[in-house]
Specification:
The complex is a heterotetramer, with two copies of chain A and two copies of chain B. Chain A is an all-alpha fold. Helices cover 80% and strands 0% of the residues of chain A. Chain A has helices spanning 5-34, 43-79, 87-98, 102-109, 117-156. In chain A, helix 3 (87-98) runs antiparallel to helix 5. The longest helix of chain A has 40 residues, at 117-156. Chain A starts with a helix and ends with a helix. In chain B, strands 3-2-1-4-5-6 form a six-stranded parallel beta sheet. In chain B, helix 5 (117-144) runs antiparallel to helix 6 (159-180). Chain B starts with a helix and ends with a helix. By secondary structure, chain B is α/β, with parallel strands linked by helices. Chain B contains 18 helices and six strands. Chain B has helices at residues 2-24, 28-55, 61-80, 86-111, 117-144, 159-180, 184-206, 213-235, 238-261, 266-271, 282-285, 294-302, 313-318, 321-333, 352-359, 370-373, 395-398, 449-462; strands at 306-311, 337-342, 367-369, 382-386, 417-422, 442-446. The chains are: A mainly alpha, B alpha/beta. Chains A and C meet through helix 2 of A and helix 2 of C. The complex binds NADP nicotinamide-adenine-dinucleotide phosphate (2 copies).
């Protein structure tokens, strides 16, 4: 962790400012985005919904950002301890972890494609994404295991 | 509904397993278990997601097809790939990860569940980073494979300007997306974003020289993580955010490390054009090169007390690691101390040489880091440079104008005798001549790495 | 970080199980807790509210838990690097950080105590809490600074 | 409303500053800045909260009174306290942190804004941990101050059973609180919880011997963090959760470290009764003790090549660190090598000796850890044990039945000559005799630590 601290602090602060901007922008955008033709009958509920959705949305965003920041900290701390010898397996192993997108892909691919064209489209994208992500996951973990097994084997022999 | 939240808690467990897994990577002893923990975390995440899908009554046909095809392809790739081709493999996997992010974010946009500003921004970011990663990785892999197409850095005139224009265009498209909210317009804009980002990915990577590909791969590794994190913001899933950030951090650390080892800034790697202008005349430098034969080398090795191997990219190309190990063993049997000096950017990715030598069963206690071996280089009787070039080029110390100026190198020129094994006098990836080859204490031994070493072994056994 | 890994994993898994239990318990509890006499007129809205509140509550809890877990990781990684020499300042410094409860105390003490007895009570508790927490904060950071300044002074002298 | 969320994002910044601050603690060079960063984070958090209060139209009178009184008390305490009383100070601060958590959680419960199961559980946990921390800390401080009241571990008959019963009672009360939801019942139950937890806190700490107080303090440090985190769950505030977890982790690490250094399990520290039964007769052991004078010591020091100081709790009591520094300087001027051997649990808290010696301007390169100095102890001419006892007691190595059996010690008995400076032959905190004092190579020099050292300095200057 030899990054100049000041630089990272400044970068972080500007990130915060940026994010504040986005957060501040949520309200109008949501209102705009959700302004679907609202059936007059359920208009009360609709309103309540929108209000809840906005404030809920913000809470979620703030929590997600917090999680992001903490995870970056954990990442830097943990990875900085990996010795040079293991940097290649580290690359392939962390690569496999980034295949976590498969989680999103699974949900997308499970859409009922027979119902709506948009769902069919999403499901199609989803299945391709699953294939790509699973290559990433299985390939990554497996090849890492192959490499690491070599390091371990050698340890026992002498 | 209840199950849903419980499941989300289980996701936290998966994320924790990833972290424990990466912590395991801190030592070769625990690394295998660490990797398995990571894989277990992934399994938990996938099974949990399938539970969600099942509970919400989703369709499983496509899911199952995707899982099987993807896993099979991944397994074949992982089991078939040669250790020396690891950089390409990592590059390819990066690209796939990025591609998946583009598609998932796109799919979510089409469904149009959530259209608040932050989600739209996250969607655009997923699309941009994902597409840049995907195409950038493919180009990088092509370069690493030394495919004819990508052979040398190719730039349009005013490439930097075009790239900057594309970046601005992406920014505008993103703003447009946020502004237009959910709907057909934003889907169209998203497609445009993906296309423009793809072009940008190709341009950015294509104008970087092949020697810098490893840095690019590490950076793209980081990007693939960030793309996953952005997708996490899109589908509001914390495990994606956490894992993505972990990978992002990993990529940044490795990139930083490589840049430092080459004494260059990241900016210079990405946008700097390597000037090949001021290079001294190669013929002149190589006037006094002396070559030798296997028998000569065997004779020199015979009397040596301490021998250091300095492997480089050529060892990977020649798959000479097993031969090197044999020669090492032979020397040790004769009472010689044998060590391996590993430069941090030898080969084509960080730790490349370590993996190859581990494959050949070389004890990792014998692998010494550059900073560790340089101070005692004077007491080395014979340094055998096998397929390394740039990482032992003393010009980095002497010529402040050359492209690798200031890069710390392994000071083999200080050893009593240096034997350089390579096929010709042609330069390494930095494309500059190496005065080491012409030094008075250097002997060149031309030939393919593996064959050369085997010849030496044979010659030593003869005597 | 020499804790036996298996132990911590098991502990973690049981924590997860526990938490799942609590989460599962939220729904009835909320219903019970919010079962105030609901005016019949606004019954639709009431229902909607309750539903939103429950699911929102869960999201918040899950996010908070995630943050907790990550922060523990960060804590262990960062603190494990502090050398023995600095353990006393570490104790007092981290102590000061735990005075962050002052944030909650500030909010409690700002209640309008003239309005309701419950608010007055809370404000009273709040002001005591502020005093306690501020002693913790100011005392902690200041004494840590005093100690650390000693370490630094010495560094320059030779 | 908008401001509200922006403010929450700023909280993240505060949390990040805490983390950067703790990272700074990794080196004495960066520690001051680290502490300042932490303080800056706290300032940001407080100002942000005040903004929220202002925006929501809260009343400021009480807030301002609280802030001023608290800050003033804190500042006075911090500036007045002596370095040797640091353990008490930390203990006190812990207690206050815990107390604040109890009150905040209670206040929130009274307001009754959110009554879901998780919040009620978190409230109860805040109350329990906070109250245990508060009262436990007060008792611990009393013991560390060696107040007459707390002088020796006092247990009721069947203390463990009573404690267990109280714990079960707390569990039942918590369940009752969750079950009854918001309202007067749960407030009453909360008060009960706080009372019972207070009793438990006193009981738990009171039955632990004074020597183990530092472990208790560290554990309570961890608790105060956890209480803050629990309060964070109650008022749904992430910065509390994060900071609380950081402190919790810190306390656990320090507790663990101390237990290891004493070769005891945490369970043993908390519930184990130190048996004083099988201890050998002190008079017998001390039959051959030899005492000496300042002049004797000065003479011995005169010819010494390498002198090691071994400070312990007595140095803190006697405030002898400055005198020790003077003696060290004097010796160095005469060409002697001077080092300081620091046992991990010397004194009354981890790093206690380091702080005292830093106060006296001793260069921290000269402070050696136990594991570092033990291997070369044979080559030490004179070891000066100043106010240490248990940490140099060779019985830890030889007598597997004594209370400190197996605790690693500083092997001063292997030095050529040992000089022990203390006021009498009375035991240290573990309460056992020390055969070192009667060893053939040991000389006792009775007296208050500071005076004794000053006498030696005077004697050396005379000769
Ligand atoms: N590892 C990383 O992470 C990383 C990252 C970024 C950049 N790089 C760059 O990559 C380069 C690595 O340096 P390096 O010294 O390892 O490699 P290098 O400078 O690229 O030189 C490799 C040498 O191996 C020889 N060779 C190729 N195939 C061979 C074979 N079959 N048998 C024997 N010799 C063979 C080549 O000479 P012949 O053609 O004459 O045989 C070539 O000169 C540096 O410029 C570094 O900056 C590495
Ligand atoms: N540091 C930690 O974190 C920590 C944690 C947990 C437990 N502990 C326990 O604390 C103990 C620390 O060991 P220690 O060797 O440092 O201290 P110790 O064993 O408690 O002995 C201190 C000695 O100092 C002498 N002393 C007291 N006042 C003095 C004065 N004014 N001038 C000169 N001498 C004086 C006392 O003898 P006289 O009365 O004869 O002068 C006493 O024997 C260990 O038992 C350890 O397990 C420490």
């Amino acid at each position: 962790m030899q990054f100049p601290r000041l630089v990272s602090l400044v970068a972080f602060a500007s990130l915060v400012v940026l994010v504040c901007g986005i957060v501040a922008a949520i309200e109008p955008a949501t209102d705009g985005g959700e302004a679907e033709p609202s059936a007059d009958a359920a208009s009360l509920q609709q309103n309540t919904d929108a209000k809840h959705s906005t404030s809920n949305r913000r809470e979620v965003l703030v929590a997600s950002l917090t999680i992001f920041v903490l995870a970056v900290f954990v990442g830097f701390e943990v990875i900085a301890k990996v010795p040079t010898t293991l940097h290649t397996p580290l690359m392939s192993g962390s690569n496999a972890i980034s295949g976590i997108t498969v989680v999103g892909a699974l949900i997308a691919a499970s859409e009922h494609w027979e119902k709506l064209p948009s769902m069919a489209f999403t499901a199609g994208l989803g299945v391709i994404a699953i294939v790509l992500a699973m290559i990433n996951v299985v390939g990554g973990f497996l090849v890492t295991h192959r490499m690491l097994a070599m390091f371990q084997r050698k340890k026992k022999s002498p | 509904m209840n199950l849903d939240t419980v499941i989300k808690v289980v996701y936290i467990l998966a994320a924790a397993l990833f972290i424990f897994g990466l912590k395991g990577m801190a030592h070769p002893r625990t690394a295998v278990r660490g990797n398995l923990l990571g894989a277990a975390g992934m399994l938990i995440a996938i099974v949990t997601t399938l539970l969600i899908v099942w509970q919400e009554g989703g369709r499983f046909e496509l899911v199952i097809v995707g899982l099987i095809v993807g896993s099979a392809l991944g397994a074949v790739l992982a089991l078939r790939i040669q250790m020396s081709a690891m950089p390409q493999m990592v590059g390819l996997l990066n690209g796939f990860g990025g591609g998946a992010s583009v598609l998932v974010a796109g799919g979510e946009l089409i469904l149009g569940r959530e259209g608040s500003a932050d989600v739209l921004v996250a969607t655009a970011v997923s699309g941009i980073i994902g597409a840049v990663t995907f195409w950038g990785s493919l180009v990088a892999v092509g370069k690493l494979q030394e495919l004819q197409w990508f052979k040398k850095p190719y730039s349009l005139p005013a490439q930097q300007l075009i790239n900057a224009a594309l970046a601005v265009l992406l920014l505008l498209l993103t703003i447009g997306m946020v502004w237009s909210g959910l709907g057909a317009t934003s889907i169209l804009l998203y497609v445009l974003i993906a296309v423009v980002a793809s072009v940008l990915g190709v341009f950015l990577t294509n104008s970087i020289g092949g020697a810098d590909m490893p840095v690019v791969i590490a950076l793209l590794n980081s990007y693939s993580g960030l793309a996953a994190a952005a997708t996490g913001f899109v589908i509001d899933n914390n495990v994606l955010i956490i894992s993505g950030s972990l990978v992002g951090a990993s990529g940044v650390i490795l990139t930083n490390l490589m840049c430092k080892a080459m004494n260059r800034s990241l900016f210079n790697v990405l946008f700097g054009v390597m000037q090949a202008g001021t290079i001294a005349n190669a013929d002149e430098i190589y006037a006094t090169v002396r070559s030798s034969s296997a028998d000569d080398v065997a004779m020199i090795l015979d009397g040596a007390q301490r021998v250091v191997f300095v492997p480089g990219y050529g060892m990977a190309v020649a798959q000479a690691q097993h031969a090197v190990r044999d020669l090492g063993k032979l020397l040790e049997m004769r009472g010689t101390t044998v060590e391996y000096a590993i430069h941090p950017v030898a080969g084509r990715m960080p730790g490349h040489m370590n993996v190859l030598l581990a494959e050949a069963d070389v004890d990792y206690d014998k692998l010494k880091e550059m900073d560790h071996i340089n101070p005692t280089m004077e007491t080395v009787d014979v340094a055998i440079v096998i397929g390394a070039n740039d990482v032992v080029n003393p010009m980095a110390r002497t010529d402040p104008k050359c492209p690798i100026a200031g890069m710390p190198i392994i000071d083999v020129d200080k050893a009593r005798t240096v034997i350089v094994i390579k096929r010709s006098l042609s330069p390494g990836f930095a494309g500059i001549p190496n005065p080491l080859f012409a030094a008075p204490n250097t002997l060149m031994f031309y030939g393919d790495g593996q064959k050369a070493i085997l010849d030496i072994v044979a010659a030593m056994k003869d005597t």
